[in-house]
Design a protein that fits this description.
It contains seven helices and seven strands. By secondary structure, the chain is an alpha/beta fold. The chain has a seven-stranded parallel beta sheet, with helices on both faces. Bound molecules: nicotinamide-adenine-dinucleotide.
Length: about 240
């Protein structure tokens, strides 16, 4: 794979899977726009990544207007766009009875509306460049997980958004998704709690937790311009969890 001369926006790239994805694209020759809610986090991520071939595109992706502003900042800063990675996301767990209207709206705005309107804003530029969109969906979009109804609802929407956009944007733009199981990031919420991490690892047949780098490599694979036929694909990277349900 090479992304020499390619221009990539990774949403939610100040840490976790997004940060690892930005680093993977950079290593393969791309220029990358970094996004996160806070400008200070974006600045810190850019200096952590080494500063070169990087531009800032900060903004909270909870509204259509903000998505358009972030995508336009990336296009202006990079001089165009070849790949959009819709990665920003948040998690709320707990009993379905405890989900308030406000929490529902907040999570769905980031996890679903953000992917939808960033994709919409990027279409003209991606179409011009025969580009690609990659969604960070989740294993929770492929099956129902314990006490995660709201999150599963949002990721199920991202899974079907991937299929619908793949259909509508072919043959100009390919649209695919990674569907990770547990990944070692802040979102996992286990920190250094060895017992909690063991319990999470037990959940998959592979009895382990993915690194952000493994998910980043899969995102690059799906975005690779050498792939001409793969669109609408859902790539589960979950240690076999969904295969065994
Ligand atoms: P993380 O919490 O480490 O990072 C999330 C990133 O998204 C951060 O950069 C944060 O600033 C950004 N973000 C959050 N809300 C935002 C907003 N409103 N506007 C702009 N940026 C925002 O989480 P992660 O584990 O790296 O998660 C990345 C993606 O992977 C998410 O979509 C998540 O749902 C998905 N995912 C994670 C796991 C896991 O176990 N960690 C599993 C499956 C899917």
């Amino acid at each position: 794979m090479t992304f020499d001369g390619k221009r990539v926006l990774v949403t939610g790239s100040t840490r976790g899977i997004g940060f690892a994805t930005a680093r993977a694209f950079l290593k393969q020759g791309a220029s990358v726009a970094i996004n996160g809610r806070k400008a200070s986090d974006v600045t810190a991520a850019i200096s952590g990544l080494g500063g070169e071939n990087l531009v800032a595109a900060s903004g909270d992706l909870g509204s259509g207007a903000a998505c358009r502003q972030v995508v336009n900042a990336a296009i202006d800063g990079l001089g165009g766009l070849d790949v959009l990675v819709n990665n920003a996301g948040v998690y709320v767990g707990g009993p379905v009875e405890d989900v308030s209207d406000e929490t529902y709206a907040w999570l769905m705005d980031i996890n679903v509306k953000g992917c939808f309107f960033c994709s919409q804003a990027a279409i003209p530029e991606l179409r011009r460049n025969n580009g690609a969109i990659v969604m960070t969906a989740s294993e929770s979009g492929l099956s129902g997980n314990h006490e995660s109804a709201l999150y599963c609802t949002s990721k199920g929407a991202v899974v079907n958004m991937t299929r619908a956009l793949a259909h509508d944007l072919a043959p100009d733009i390919r649209v695919n998704a990674v569907c990770p199981g547990a990944v070692m990031t802040d979102m996992l919420g286990a920190g250094d709690d060895a017992e909690a991490l063991r319990d999470i690892a037990e959940f998959s047949p592979m009895k382990t937790i993915a690194s952000p780098e493994e998910i980043a490599d899969a995102i690059c694979f799906l975005a690779d311009p050498g792939q001409k036929f793969m669109t609408g694909a859902l790539l589960a990277i979950d240690g076999g969890a969904t295969a065994c349900r």
